[in-house]
Design a protein that fits this description.
two-stranded antiparallel sheet, alpha/beta, 21% strand, five-stranded mixed beta sheet
């Protein structure tokens, strides 16, 4: 693969298994810019199977799903698109959430995005217990949202069974409005 630079065309990547001298440079009519050894291209490009780009492009690492606005004392948890099908996945989500919330060093208000989240039915009780535990230790108030009426119903029922007020809304705007109302009523 080449990219245009001020010095000319720079060779940045080559196909796996290609010999740089024999297969590329010997066949070119000019010498490309080579700043470092060209990286191998993604081998999936050359396979007949589906590359899985959708997953690569749309997935967000779990560690990057948390943000904190210090001025607002607002912790945002973006679970969008996660699929929780094993106890190990659930434990990792709990541990990483716990780590991020603890690092803030004080109790916070929180908004959690549950859009397109799937939690296996056999894990819902464990999941709601993890949510209850985190809420008790770190949150001054928490609200959640998802466009899925099924998820609002299911998660709401499970959280209520653990004595956790669900506060699940249809949009982020509604969740933020509810949280703003909670903050003014607590002030």
């Amino acid at each position: 693969m080449f990219r245009l630079t001020a010095e000319g065309l720079e060779l940045t990547e080559i196909a796996p298994g290609v010999d740089l001298e024999r297969d590329v440079l010997a066949r070119m009519g000019f010498a490309p810019v080579i700043r470092r050894q060209p990286k191998p291209m993604d081998p999936r490009i050359f396979q007949p199977a589906i590359m899985g780009l959708k997953h690569d492009m749309l997935s967000i690492p779990l560690e990057d799903r948390f943000s904190y606005d210090e001025a607002e004392n607002l912790f945002f948890v973006n679970l969008e698109g996660l699929s929780v099908t094993t106890a190990a996945q659930l434990e990792r989500i709990r541990a990483v959430t716990d780590e991020h919330a603890a690092a803030i060093g004080r109790r916070v208000y929180a908004i959690v995005n549950y859009d397109n989240v799937y939690i296996a039915p056999d894990l819902m009780d464990q999941y709601s217990e993890a949510v209850r535990s985190i809420a008790e230790r770190y949150y001054l108030g928490v609200t959640r949202y998802t466009t899925s009426s099924f998820m609002r119903l299911k998660l709401g029922h499970v959280l209520q069974s653990r004595d956790v007020a669900p506060h699940i809304h249809e949009s982020r705007r509604e969740a933020a409005a509810w949280l703003a109302h909670l903050r003014t009523s607590q002030a």
